[in-house]
Amino acid sequence: MRVKSELASYVEEQLAFLGRLSTKSIFGGIGIFVDERLLGIVMDDKLYLHTDTSNLRSYQERGMPQFKPYPNAFDLTTDHHQVPAEIVDDPAQLKHWGEQALAAAIEAAKVKQLAGIERSRHMKQARKKQKDEK
Fold this sequence. Notes:
By secondary structure, this protein is α+β, with helices and mostly antiparallel strands. It has a single domain (6-133), classed as YgaC/TfoX-N like chaperone (Yope Regulator, Chain: A). The protein has 4 helices and 5 strands. A hairpin with a 2-residue loop joins strand 1 (21-26) and strand 2. The chain starts with 5 loop residues before the first helix and ends with a helix. The relative contact order is 0.14.
């Protein structure tokens, strides 16, 4: 069953300029994706956008909580923080925060990709070392 949300529809409309937007159910809420990259999550009529070191301070200064998909899980969190209501209600501000969130999501994807490449390189070196030792 697809979850509907006026907030998700509004956010999609405001952030459509960022790229090809799509939504799908995630963690019991609605994931907002730009070109298949998770940008934000709408849960319980709250918007959470992707954060990293480049934009996290704006959220922390306002005391905005980090998204916890499973509130009872001790340390399971995501790189998304709740967007203040005054930002959501101001289309210009929301667009700016959306751009920052997309930049954070793109950077996170690059870091993960590089980590995977590095992990693969180390595994190949370990296999080669084992082979040479035989």
